[in-house]
């Protein structure tokens, strides 16, 4: 069993994050007196939380996924997150296009590349 400091160091997290996740119902480490002790199962759960966060899930969704939901429920959550992630990627790609445009125009609104980005935004809105 590992201490909170050991787990925090292993995952590169501040200890307060692990305490917060515990308060939010994501982790339930054992206690020896007043000290938290983390098992290998807890380490796997921390890894699962980090993977889900990397995929863009919020803590409430992660808690729902980790509390015994059916495979169908998890698949529906994953589908919704994929849609949100695709939309975020599209916005990031549009921002990258703007930054890579290297427009020589002094007036931004006169730039054809920028105008194209604006028109695409107007079509989506």
Automatic annotation (TrEMBL):
Coiled coil: 75-102
Alphabetical keyword list: Coiled coil, DNA-binding, Repressor, Transcription, Transcription regulation
Domain HTH merR-type, residue spans: 1-68
SMART domains assigned: HTH_MERR
Pfam families for the chain: MerR_1
Top-level taxon of the source organism: Bacteria
GO MF, one annotated term: DNA-binding transcription factor activity
SUPFAM superfamilies: Putative DNA-binding domain
Protein name (database record): MerR family transcriptional regulator
């Amino acid at each position: 069993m590992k201490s909170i400091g050991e787990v925090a160091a292993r995952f590169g997290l501040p200890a307060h994050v692990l305490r917060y996740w515990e308060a939010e119902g994501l982790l339930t480490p054992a206690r020896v007196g007043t000290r938290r002790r983390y098992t290998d199962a807890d380490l796997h759960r921390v890894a699962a939380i980090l993977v889900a966060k990397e995929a863009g899930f919020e803590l409430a969704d992660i808690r729902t996924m980790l509390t015994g939901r059916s495979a169908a429920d998890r698949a529906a959550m994953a589908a919704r997150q994929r849609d949100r992630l695709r939309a975020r990627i599209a916005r990031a790609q549009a921002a990258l296009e703007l930054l890579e445009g290297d427009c020589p125009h002094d007036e931004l609104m006169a730039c054809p590349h920028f105008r194209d980005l604006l028109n695409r935004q107007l079509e989506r809105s």
